[in-house]
Write a structure and sequence with these properties.
Strands 1, 2, 3, 4 and 5 form a five-stranded antiparallel sheet that branches. The protein has helices spanning 7-17, 37-44, 50-53, 55-66, 122-135, and strands at 21-34, 81-90, 105-118, 142-145, 149-154. It contains five helices and five strands. 32% of the residues lie in helices and 31% in strands.
């Protein structure tokens, strides 16, 4: 007969194994966010402050600031990582693209933004994801949500 351990008890058991290490259940949220070509170029040259003035990226920052569940690392909040890149796509009939035209292959300057959300209720998670999708400028946002995983830090 299999038994299950409540999540809180499992977390206490893990921490008791080594009190200098803290483990917590989270989900990774990764959003691909378009930015202006000039913003991407400035970031590539080391000017990360260019992200703050990018209109599209500013909408993501507002979601992070309004969602304390995202990027919560205790004494640090709104924690996220940005990776510079580009996305390619072909617009199909029926689309209302923000960038490109029907039948055209497009490349978009994009940043991949990774953050974490503490394992919250399905309703809380749905609200956070709704904020992200509502703020995203694309017709079909690309936002990944991982299965639950653990983050490790010092206790």
């Amino acid at each position: 007969m299999a038994t299950t351990t409540p999540p809180q008890a499992a977390e206490r058991d893990r921490e008791a194994a080594d009190p200098s290490v803290r483990r917590r259940a989270v989900r990774r949220v990764k959003a691909y966010w378009p930015v202006a070509e000039a913003t991407l170029a400035a970031c590539a040259q080391g000017d990360l402050e260019a992200l703050r003035s990018d209109e599209s990226f500013a909408s993501l920052l507002r979601v992070l600031e309004a969602s304390p569940e995202l990027g919560d690392f205790g004494v640090y909040g709104d924690v996220f990582e940005v990776t510079l890149g580009a996305e390619g796509f072909t617009v199909r009939p029926g689309a209302r693209p923000t960038l490109g035209a029907i039948g055209e292959r497009s490349l978009s300057p994009t940043v991949a933004v990774t953050t974490y959300v503490h394992a919250v209720t399905d309703e809380d998670l749905a609200r956070v994801l709704a904020r992200l999708t509502a703020a995203h400028p694309w017709e079909i946002p690309v936002i990944e949500l991982s299965a639950p995983l653990e983050l490790v830090s010092r206790a």
